[in-house]
Design brief:
CATH superfamily of the largest domain: Dipeptide-binding Protein, Domain 3
Shape: globular
Number of strands: 20
Largest sheet: 7 strands, mixed
Number of helices: 14
CATH class of the largest domain: Alpha Beta
Helix content: 25-40%
CATH architecture of the largest domain: Roll
């Protein structure tokens, strides 16, 4: 059984304890947008991960430095020699917020819920799971359809590993996301749409180590300039997703510090190539390539983000070992763009791009709009609230959409759900059997060199078919009140509240 070293865990707990003798105060966090739902099974917006991380403990978490698995509700695991199953040991003495005990039966319930709920975004993440067996109250065996233990375990450190209270989930059904009950350090109190999400410390939390503040309020503020102003005025203590152009305003401001970390995700324009009547515009790969070639990624990164982001064109960063060097970030080629459009019979292409109200994507969309105009392409911009935009994308009610993926430690998490034929987030309904075969083979191999070659092959297929124009990979910039102690940035952009020490109240 792969148990995590007590010494390492004790050191981590000591570090958390050193931040505060006891939790106190109200921590206010400005998040990028109002989440869609607080149900980990059907949540899609990255902003939902912020409050859900406080409310819903996972079977595992990942470390901030090397993204290795660390214990949360599971204390260890053992992979069978044939790779066709793994066994989890569960933490004892854990209660859900409604008092229901956390045990192996609860884990089995959650796997079943993630895998079988209509509209679940976790289904693909757990697609390799064949069955879940209760060995004893603190032990679960997960049997697999193919040897994909490493991928499934990594996914259990994300929303697929969040455990909800079975009784509450059964009682609330589709309404569970309006009043989630989990086993995290904080319990849900209330949600005011477009106003705030409030959580407070759970008295019976399994970890007795002094934690964070007594209460946390998540405030959706879509404009990063407004988030920044709220941070500087003291209205909030943390502002997520500041943009590089915000940073000069903070120079010399002793009230605020900026913490940055590399980001696992990417921003991209997704083309509807096969989802309903609106797919006609981009069903021809030559049209998708034409738009892609008219975009200057380096110019976007330099002009809008002060070269703080990294231009990209694949589902992993150019710095990743899985990046396909045979298909580097393309240079802009307006003449080639015009030729492709003429060949496709649409020399005067016109289409609409859906964009959320977020400033970063709004400015980038306008920049791209001007670039495309030089290639004879008219791109209209339609602003939609992000949750509405994603709903329309799923229904095929779009030609192109400016989307963002927060990223996963394993490249499978950045690709499979978005481009495999049955991927739940494949809003374009793009389907390529050759690509599916490569991605499935990459899921099953335990050979690191073979896996790297397979993902490079997959990236090559996607580069030729241009399912999306991936534009850049961020660094996350988080604004933090200088008086707040214990904030640790994470590559998945999710804020862990545990261990933060609130500043003393002002009089």
């Amino acid at each position: 059984m792969r148990h995590f070293r007590p010494a390492a865990l004790a050191a981590a707990l000591f570090l958390c304890a050193s931040f505060a003798a006891h939790a106190q105060g109200v921590l206010r966090i400005g998040i990028n947008e109002d989440p869609d739902t607080l149900d980990p099974t059907v949540n899609r917006l990255a902003s939902g991960r912020q409050p859900m991380t406080a409310i819903c403990d996972k079977l595992f978490d990942v470390s901030a430095d090397d993204l290795s698995l660390v214990p949360q509700l599971a204390t260890g695991y053992e992979v069978a020699d044939d790779g066709m199953s793994f066994t989890l040991s569960l933490r004892e003495g854990v209660k859900f917020h409604d008092g229901e005990p956390f045990d192996a039966e609860a884990v089995r319930f959650n796997f079943d819920r993630h895998m079988n709920t209509s509209g679940s975004f976790r289904r693909t993440e757990l697609a390799a799971v064949d069955s879940v067996e209760v060995v004893d109250p603190q032990t679960v065996r997960v049997r697999l359809k193919s040897p994909q233990a490493s991928i499934v375990l990594v996914n259990l450190a994300e929303r697929a590993g969040m455990m909800v209270a079975p009784a509450a989930a059964q009682k609330l059904g589709e309404r569970f996301g309006t009043a989630p009950v989990c086993a995290g350090e904080y319990r849900f109190v209330e949600r005011v749409p477009q106003g705030r999400i409030v959580v407070e410390r759970f008295a019976d939390y399994w970890d007795p180590t002094p934690g964070g503040p007594d209460r946390v309020e998540y405030l959706p503020i879509s404009d990063s300039t407004v988030r920044l102003s709220a941070l500087r005025s003291g209205e909030i203590h943390i502002a997520e997703r500041l943009t590089p152009t915000d940073l000069p305003q903070l120079e010399g401001d002793a009230r605020v510090k900026v913490v940055s970390a590399p980001d696992l995700g990417y921003h991209h324009i997704r083309y509807n190539s096969n989802n309903g009547a609106m797919a006609k515009t981009f069903s021809d790969v030559r049209v998708r390539k034409a738009v892609d070639l008219a975009i200057d990624r380096q110019a976007i990164v330099k002009a809008l983000f002060n070269d703080q982001y990294l231009a990209g064109n694949q589902f992993v960063s150019p710095q990743s070992q899985y990046y396909d060097q045979a298909h580097p970030v393309p240079a802009r080629d307006v003449e080639a763009s015009r030729r492709l459009l003429a060949e496709a019979g649409v020399p005067n292409l016109t289409f609409t791009l859906l964009v959320p109200a977020e400033r970063e994507r709004q400015e980038a969309a306008q920049f791209v709009q001007a670039m495309l105009a030089e290639a004879g392409i008219t791109m209209r911009l339609e602003t939609q609230e992000n949750a509405v935009m994603l709903q329309n994308s799923r229904r095929g009610q779009f030609e192109a959409v400016f989307s963002f993926w927060s990223g996963r430690p394993h490249p499978d998490g950045n690709m499979f759900s978005h481009v495999s034929c049955q991927g739940p987030q494949n809003d374009s309904k793009y389907c390529n059997e050759e690509l599916d075969a490569v991605l499935n083979k990459a899921r099953e191999t335990n050979d690191a060199d073979e896996r790297r070659k397979l993902y490079q092959q997959a990236n090559g297929i996607l580069a030729e078919n241009v399912t999306a124009s991936i534009l850049w990979h961020r660094r996350t910039f988080t604004g933090v009140s200088s008086s707040l102690q214990g904030f640790v940035p994470h590559p998945d952009s999710t804020i862990r509240v545990k261990g933060m020490k609130m500043p003393p109240p002002t009089r």
